[in-house]
Each structure stands twice: as C-alpha cells, then as structure tokens.
Specification:
five-stranded mixed beta sheet, two-stranded antiparallel sheet, 6 helices
Length: about 150
Amino acid sequence: MLSGGSCVSIYSEDKYVSMDLDFIETGVSSRAKVTMCMENLGFVQDHRYFKHPEVELLVEFPAGPLGIGNEPITQFNEIPTAVGVLRLLTPTDCVKDRLAWFYHAGDTECLEQACLVARKHVIDFDEIVRWSAGEGKAEEFEKLKRSLISTQGN
C-alpha cells in the first residue's frame, strides 16, 4: 500500500511533489521476493531504496505493519490505473500520517502537507480528534484544527 509523501502528491494534485514512493507490505511477502521483483523490473537496490536508470523516483518498502502513530490502518483507498489498482491511504489517514510527523518529529513541512490534502478533500476531523487524543496530542490538534479546517474546500 502506498503511504507517505506520494499520497500527499496524489491528494494535493501535485501541489506537493514527493521524490520517492513508500510502499508498505500488507501481505505475506519476503524482502527477497520484493527485491527479486524490483530487479526483474530493472531496479537496483541502493541501501533502503530501489533506483531505476530511467525513473527519477526512488522506491522504498518500509517495514510494516501499516500504521499511523500507535494505530494500525484498517481502511484504504483504491485508485484504478491503466496497469491495475493502486491501494493507498485514505485522505483522512494521509492527513493523520503527516500530522504524526509533525507531532512526533516537529516537521512543519508535514503540517503544510496535511493542509494541502485537507484543502482538496473532505477530511473526517472527528476521526483526527480521536486519533490525536490516542497519540497524546489532543491539545496540539485543537491548536491546529482551525488552520486545517479553514483550508477545507479551498
């Protein structure tokens, strides 16, 4: 499943551009199988990334399980493409993912990315309130909520 900044790129209609694709394994597949598959596609492993001579983007397969902060992901979005279905975080989970980086690492760029997604999509703010409380960040979210909600629908 696609996660991270690439979801922001998709949901913000490229207002933010990520230079890597983060795929989290959701099934039972060994790292050796993933590596073999990527190599068959012409990618070469360079530390934690896979690179391809004809592709600018890096591909990474961070260790699972898929979760945001302390919580597993149970829902996902699907986007049909010419080569198959792309599974990715929902817009609400994408906002939570970016907020997790802001909450726990102080990454203000991720807060801006959360606003970009909220600007283009309907976000379940009740869910983000609930999740933020579980992360011990309810008070911080209350300070941010106005700026996120004010971007909604713009």
